[in-house]
Amino acid sequence: MSGTTHGITTGAVARQLGVSPATVRSWEQRYGIGPAERAEGRHRRWSAADVAMLEEMCRLTATGVPPSEAAHAALRVRSDGQTADAKTPGEQRAEPAARPGRAGSGMRRGDVGQEVRALSRAAMRLEGPAMEVLLQRLLTDYGLVVAWEEVIAPTLRAVGSKWAASDDRFVEVEHLMSWQVSAALRRATVRRSEVSGAASPVVLACVPGERHTLSLEALAAGLTERGQLVRMFGADVPAETLDAAVRRIGPAAVVLWAQTAVTADASLAGRIADTAFGVRGARTAPHVLLSGPGWLGQPIAPGASTGPSGLREALDVVCRLGQGHSPAALG
Question: Rounded to an integer, what distance in angstroms lies between the CA atom of residue 51 and that of residue 83?
């Protein structure tokens, strides 16, 4: 094969499949899933048969098949030519048949169990590319809320419990899965542009000493998807930094995440809730939502409240606060 008129680039095929170019290259390096031929200059060009092979690889790994086994099956698809004539390179891929639970509705119990097992297997085998494909498909097929509440969060809890019960033997599993989930959530966030308007921003931050960010990242992705302005400060935010940010931004709400009672700081929540901003004579203050299991049993400062436990309810509450709070001119 020669010239640029035959086949499509790695970047183009990755976009068509909904995975990253790094994943496609990783499959080629580790499992031999590469284009049958190369263009002049050794540039990769993927033919229709090559694309069919990669589609089969995605399909199999998304159902929990180990990538090494999926690669053998996918190579047979190309050699047998089962789907090579289905479309030409660059042609629009047909939409898959709608799954039960598509477009953000709940999943059937059997589907939940299957998805959790597939994601858990990929995590335990440290198969990063397989986790990437699974997470992307979950977010696309079921929407952020359903994917998070019914599959991703339960799998994270199960992996964390296994690590805690095994004398830290599976810490690498938890770290790799956390990284993959964080990457998937950030990809979901950047696909949406912020919608400015009358709504004030919402600040999301972990309290000092707290490094568990995934629940906040899921909230940030969901808020951005709904058009809410978000300022995400992430893990272990120093108290003075948070104070300064709130004064500069003038947010409608501040969500403070604490995973454990050790990091939950009621006095910090009270100070943030007392932060006044805006023009003199019309100053206002943010509403502080205390989120995470660390706040259970902790005193609640005036102006603060315990946030909802589920992602869907948290999105509804935070969006209402953001839309009902006009931005103040900072004085």
Answer: 9
CA distance 247 to 239: 13
pLDDT tens for 183-241 read 999 988 775 545 545 468 899 999 999 999 999 999 999 999 888 889 999 999 999 99
CB 329 within 8 A of CB 247: no
Q: Pick the closest to residue 257 from 290, 221, 229, 283 (CA basis).
A: 290
The tokens describing 302, both together, are 């005036």
Please check the confidence at residue 322 and state whether its pLDDT lies above 60. Answer: yes
Structure tokens at 267: 């006095």
* DSSP secondary structure, 289-323, as one string: EEESGGGTTPPPPTTEEEPPSSHHHHHHHHHHHHH
- Distance between CA 285 and CA 265 in Å, rounded? 19
Residue whose pair of structure tokens reads 């629940």 in the numeric block: 215
Of residues 97 and 282, more confidently modeled: 282
Residue 234 phi, psi dihedral angles, 5° rounding: 75, -145
Give residue 189's Cα distance to chain centre: 8
> What is the rounded CA–CA span in Å between residue 237 and residue 235?
6
